[in-house]
Amino acid sequence: MNDEKPDMRTLIAEVSLALFEKRGFTETSVQDICDELGVTKGTFYYYFASKEALLMDIHEQYIVTLLEEQGKILADADLTYREKVCAILYMLIRDIEKRGARGRVFFREMRHLNDERKAKIVPLRNQFRLNIEQMVREGVEAGAFRSATNPKLAAFALLGIANWSYQWFHPDGELSDQEVADAFAAMLLEGIEVASRDR
Amino acid sequence: MNDEKPDMRTLIAEVSLALFEKRGFTETSVQDICDELGVTKGTFYYYFASKEALLMDIHEQYIVTLLEEQGKILADADLTYREKVCAILYMLIRDIEKRGARGRVFFREMRHLNDERKAKIVPLRNQFRLNIEQMVREGVEAGAFRSATNPKLAAFALLGIANWSYQWFHPDGELSDQEVADAFAAMLLEGIEVASRDR
Amino acid sequence: MNDEKPDMRTLIAEVSLALFEKRGFTETSVQDICDELGVTKGTFYYYFASKEALLMDIHEQYIVTLLEEQGKILADADLTYREKVCAILYMLIRDIEKRGARGRVFFREMRHLNDERKAKIVPLRNQFRLNIEQMVREGVEAGAFRSATNPKLAAFALLGIANWSYQWFHPDGELSDQEVADAFAAMLLEGIEVASRDR
Amino acid sequence: MNDEKPDMRTLIAEVSLALFEKRGFTETSVQDICDELGVTKGTFYYYFASKEALLMDIHEQYIVTLLEEQGKILADADLTYREKVCAILYMLIRDIEKRGARGRVFFREMRHLNDERKAKIVPLRNQFRLNIEQMVREGVEAGAFRSATNPKLAAFALLGIANWSYQWFHPDGELSDQEVADAFAAMLLEGIEVASRDR
DNA sequence: CATGAATGAGGATTCATTCAT
DNA sequence: AATGAATGAATCCTCATTCAT
């Protein structure tokens, strides 16, 4: 009912994304993409100026959507700082199911964008990280997070935990995305060590 | 005194590593490597059966060395579980300085190994992770880590935090490798949240 | 008042001519032409059977017009032979301003016509030269030109002088078209050498 | 006895030159060149960085050789100005036999060099013309050429006459290169018109 | 040990042209 | 009269690899 028109452009983008994820950007030829769709290379170039332009498309869509979702979480006045950390972790982990390929391609293939294109994407990617950093900083000031916390490193830690899961997490495994996100949030917030006074 | 023999094989491997890191495996041609060394392609193929064989070399050296170092830490009876976590994190972060290129190439280019070669590397890489998982499990049993801790996820979190730093950490930045490792260890062990009874 | 109907066919021909001159026939794509006009390729092919057919159009118009103008000069009984030489040179040089693009495209791109088309154009081009040759021959017989003059070579010399100017002459330079034509006529008619008896 | 080694690089350059002349630079594919030689494209690119680099080679060789020969003529103190004009014309016409293809390709395909390469060739080409201009100027000052002569236009006329012959002159025609050159020199020096006092 | 020449398969991209609408 | 989607062949170029010397 909603995708009555298969829309060749979208079709190409989807098939390409899948191939880029599986084999990598450089290892996927335009011919591979066309073979998969049963069209000729002319068709590909009718819709995309170059293979790299298509990669840019994928990158832009990914980071822009991510920033929007993050914005909603951070702006939500009803959430505590703890809940914001949980929400962002959950958003990223859940994303693997919904847009895992996009995420993997985003982080792995960005270097194939030329300088000009990278100059448009990198600031957005950094913004995502800086937004987390800022949130942690505010949480420290508000007394929710330990005063010893380095907001910059905390942001990197959160991103490392979440983004690394792209390499191993399969949504149909034994743990659900919500469970994984919760467990990670607990580690980052409370640590894994038995608190000194509980020993 | 220590590099009396420049040893062409090692030379090729080193130069290749640097190029693979900077440009990527696929984007680096055998010609590029030879140009850098001022030798001809014949020389390259005298020492390595193929470009992929060279990549395998880099992978093997990296993971074998890493496993050895990890083994020393885990076998050290003098270390507490907390100290072991710190030591492993420090080992990985410090590695970025010493062998950063190798690590980045290891994680980024592994997919260019053929199935047979990957079948030799992947178990070693998994072993590294399982060793951490096992250490956490023992720590939980020994009462050093919270009983709620999921050892598998904890291992993934530790690796995510450490390996993600390959993407941003520069040893000559404002924080030293020791400081970064300590801060990460603190987060993972104690969490960033102010403990409930301290609020 | 005179271009009431922009006439797509003429529009296409004009834009194409400009592009062919600037970039060359092969280097100009049908897409380039359409982009310039803001129409689609379908439109182009509605008016012209092929890119080459359009090139033929340009060639025909050029040589036919040129032959007509030449005919008027040669048939003019009021002109001396000297004046006819001057007039033809002036016609060609002045043409660079009015139809320079056409001339350059004519001489430079003729080889892109297929054999059949070339068979229609080449005789016309030769006719233009033979008409000059014939005029010189008559001039010699009439005693206006030196008896030693080889009419064939004289025609080639005149054409060489005039057509080579397409490569360097800019009507807005320091010399006007009339001055250039006059100077060339003087050289060809009187030579540049100080006559032996004047020495 | 002198070309014992067929030298692939020279071979490629020669075959390419012939094809460029016959079909044009753009219309000649690297594949065409290789087919002609029975080698593969890899071989071509082993010897030339690009098709354009090969074109540059042809251009450089042509103009450098031409300038050298011109230099010898102009520096020859034994020659009168008249003889210098004859010699240069003869050199250019004779060249058509020896290096006609090179000349035609030089003038016709120069625009396919990129800006950087053109910036190396154009000054040399201009130098050739300016040398003639300077010679004419000196001839005027020395009283050998009419004082009314515009040296710049005279140089263009000489070049136009000579270079246009590339389009039609075949050394095996009814006139020899020497005869054609002499006839052209006579026209340019003495004119074709019967001198006023001879009428 | 090392070279230099050659291969051949594959890659991204361009483009004139067609055709249903 | 004009559009827009699609074709398919050709083009330049890259590159891992081989091999005689």
From TrEMBL, chains A, B, C, D:
It comes from the Bacteria. Residues 29-48 bind DNA. Signal peptide: none annotated. SUPFAM superfamilies: Homeodomain-like, Tetracyclin repressor-like, C-terminal domain. Residues 6-66 form the HTH tetR-type domain. GO terms for molecular function: DNA-binding transcription factor activity; transcription cis-regulatory region binding. Keywords: DNA-binding, Repressor, Transcription, Transcription regulation. This is DNA-binding transcriptional regulator, AcrR family. It comes from Alicyclobacillus hesperidum.
